[in-house]
TrEMBL record, chains A, B:
Methyltransferase in keyword set: no
Keywords, comma-separated and alphabetical: Hydrolase, Metal-binding, Protease
GO BP terms: proteolysis
Residues covered by the Peptidase M20 dimerisation domain: 191-349
InterPro entries, sorted: Cyt/Met_Dipeptidase (IPR051458), Peptidase_M20 (IPR002933), Peptidase_M20_dimer (IPR011650)
Tagged with keyword Acetylation: no
GO function terms (MF aspect): metal ion binding; peptidase activity
Pfam families listed in its UniProt record: M20_dimer (PF07687), Peptidase_M20 (PF01546)
Organism from which the protein derives: Larkinella humicola
SUPFAM superfamilies (UniProt xref): Zn-dependent exopeptidases
Protein name as catalogued: Dipeptidase
Length: 459, 459
């Protein structure tokens, strides 16, 4: 029985995850390249051990994709599990209470880079499949694809998918890389924002100058960059880039009312983040601002003297990383172009501005009345004894839109994280409860999905 | 004869300066503390070797002051030479074409941190005094005070001067720590701007957040900081801090006309800095903006992810270093207070703002019709065969106002640098011509000063 298997192998599941978390598989930094391969090989070996077939590394011009499958019956539907074994950089290291690549349990949580995003989450699938294969067997065919470039834009996965359409043919894609509302309020993400990410550089004089000798007569690139960035929002918190909102659909009052049913406690939100006040686009609630509305955030800024003490320099250039979260119908390439055109147009004649795009991602919406979504809903109902609320997430998984385009199937975002997991931040963590509860929930998805596909019962 | 002595010892003068430049006497960084002492001892020993008496290190709670003197006759006037043996940090090292503490000559210029500011300049005095003592003797009493904390605000020199008023008693202070207009257009600085320097911190959420999950609903401290900084100037390039201009005196048309006589070629200025256009407060010329008008410059800004690639972080805080150059009657402490009050008042309710003052400095003006100024003018006339133009400098030497207050005497700013020397920047340099011409000019100051004091002839 599954529950017995889980109980007997619980500790090993965690030890294996710890082994994986100890590998610093940071895709963004080439010095971790050997670790990336080690992580991929680890995943391959565990898929084989779980009982899947043909587990192998597939080379790309970047980091390898790990693929495995268990095809049991042509007549049964096929689920493709997607995840990523790469993690965000762990900088700044000094802000971690324990080393990012030495997983540690405190307060029933696993602290480590990637503990939730996405090692802890995709590894639940590996263990759920192992348990199913070792006990009652699989009710569907299964394909597993774990990539190594999600945190750097999945640059080579598009080609891999396009070149392997037959191999990856499936009826639904199952992904655990998102969050639920709370451990007593399960939810399923029915939408994701897209992403446009740019790096900007403002160059003034050809060298750093003495601010006493030149200050006042030479336009300071740091002041200029601040002015340019400040002008990207108006006083109502709206983005001022011409055309930016052209393809943003307003939700109907009914749709907004449905979303508003998800519990949200603003006081608790403020307390958790130690915020004095929330802020965002006028006319929208905090959950709306973070999900159904597009945004523009400075992710990093630097220039001039940033060491200790005072240095009276008028720097030659200023730089920033700026990203925009996009909602359905906003195209990342189009938005990047609008941004670039606008940003260059608002530059004063004293400076030279360069905009360099990083990877982007398409926004995504899943219909909540599909067989797939209903299967996920029933899985939560059975495993958690509660109804899962459909939500619209603020983050971006760029590859989801690509899957739909290349493979013609929808993705189910059945993630088990929490807002407090601190993804991409120091002290990322993942609840032990979430790890084990996820492993327990996944087999129910297969069961209900197979049943619903057979009986054709719609939600 | 002086000229013969100079010719015979030219190479040694330069070799000694190189020795001094090789000592990385960065006062701002405690890891260079042993080098600070080495530099002070080097200066002490060279003052002794030059023939001065009582050369010694005087301890302070920070870096030591080097003092020496040659008192020849109570009836003669006394000149106090001031300079500093500390230098600015050399960061960023990678932008130096040759190592900052390995002086190198290229195109008749000495490249090294401190080559001009101020080792190259104060060392001219040490060598000029050596030459005078070795040949015709001194026409005045001389006191030499070389400090080690100019680049960090001369924090302990004030106490040292106050505690040694008798020892430092003098008729004029002679300082070479400023620039001339060009090698064929000598000039003397008749005024300096003051300085208020602050560090600001804008804190939002208690940790770095995922910009997808929180973006739009949590006010981003980087965006906030940019908006706050942007609002510090209006569209006419004026500073918006209430009360900032209250004590700024407008120069009379005659005074402005006199300053405008100093040659200034805007096209050459732009070419030198590779500027597309100049910019500054409406209604003022570039030289005026950089001298008789106060300014506000961001000297450094940082926050969020500043490494390679893209990281979708909504950072918990943003920081900047901001300095204001002040003109006569603007008090640094008062301006720092106005800034702090204003900056905190414009912070949105979503963030917590902290303003930390660094050292400041009083603005300063020297009358151009004094015996001292006339002595400097005559020294240039005799050594350069040209009239020196009185200018108003943009930089700040905070200690000059303190000297006037504590010792009751004016300072003559007889510097020999050039705008192209790149003070405080990578690849700081000092012209060989300027080094040698400075050594040659200094004895003429003593000669004319002694004569003018004796005869009482005014300019």
């Amino acid at each position: 029985m599954l529950s017995t298997y889980f109980a007997e192998h619980k500790e090993r599941f965690l030890n294996e995850l710890f082994e994986l978390l100890r590998i610093p598989s940071v895709s963004a930094d080439s010095k971790f390249k050997p670790d990336m391969r080690r992580a991929a090989e680890f995943v391959r070996d565990k898929l084989t051990a779980a009982g899947l077939d043909n587990a192998a590394l597939h080379e790309t011009p970047g980091h390898p994709v790990v693929y495995a499958e268990k095809l049991i019956d042509d007549a049964l539907p096929t689920v493709l599990v997607y995840g990523h074994y790469d993690v965000q950089p762990a900088d700044p290291y000094e802000l971690w209470n324990t080393p990012p690549f030495e997983p540690t349990i405190r307060n029933e949580r696993i602290y480590a880079r990637g503990s939730c995003d996405d090692k802890g989450q995709f590894y639940m699938h590996v263990k759920a499949l192992e348990a199913m294969l070792a006990t009652d067997g699989l009710p569907c065919n299964v394909k597993v694809m774990i990539e190594g470039e999600e945190e750097i834009g999945s640059d080579h996965l598009g080609n891999f998918v396009a070149a392997n359409r037959d191999k990856l043919k499936c009826d639904v894609i199952l992904i655990s890389d998102t969050s639920i509302i709370a451990n007593d309020v399960p939810s399923i993400e029915a939408g994701l924002r897209g992403l446009s990410y740019v790096e900007v550089e403002v160059v003034g004089p050809n060298r750093d100058l003495h601010s006493g000798v030149y200050g006042g007569a030479v336009h300071n690139p740091l002041n200029v960059l601040c002015q340019m960035i400040a002008s990207l929002h108006d006083e109502k918190g709206r983005i001022t880039i011409p055309g930016f909102y052209d393809k943003v659909d307003e939700l109907t009052p009914e749709e907004r009312a449905a979303l508003a049913e998800a519990p949200f406690d603003e006081e608790e939100y403020k307390r958790d983040l130690n915020l004095k006040a929330v802020f965002g686009e006028e006319g929208y609630s905090s959950p709306e601002r973070a999900s159904i509305r597009p945004t523009l955030d400075v992710n990093g800024i630097w220039g001039g003297y940033i060491g200790e003490g005072a240095k009276t320099v008028l720097p030659g250039k200023a730089q920033a990383k700026i990203s925009m979260r996009l909602v359905p119908r906003q195209d990342p390439d189009e938005i990047t172009e609008l941004f670039t055109k606008h940003f260059i147009s608002i530059a004063p004649p004293t400076v030279t501005v360069t905009v360099t795009p990083h990877h982007g991602g398409q926004p995504y919406v899943t219909p909540t009345d599909s067989v797939e979504f209903e299967a996920a809903r029933r899985a939560f109902r059975e495993a958690w004894g509660k109804e899962a609320i459909p939500t619209r997430g603020g983050g971006s998984i760029p590859i989801v839109a690509l899957f739909e385009q290349e493979l013609g199937v929808k993705s189910i975002l059945m993630g088990f994280g929490l807002d407090i997991d601190a993804l991409h931040s120091p002290n990322e963590s993942y609840g032990l409860f979430n790890f084990y509860k996820g492993i327990e929930t996944i087999p129910y998805f297969y069961k209900h999905y197979a049943e619903l596909k057979k009986t054709g019962v719609e939600a």
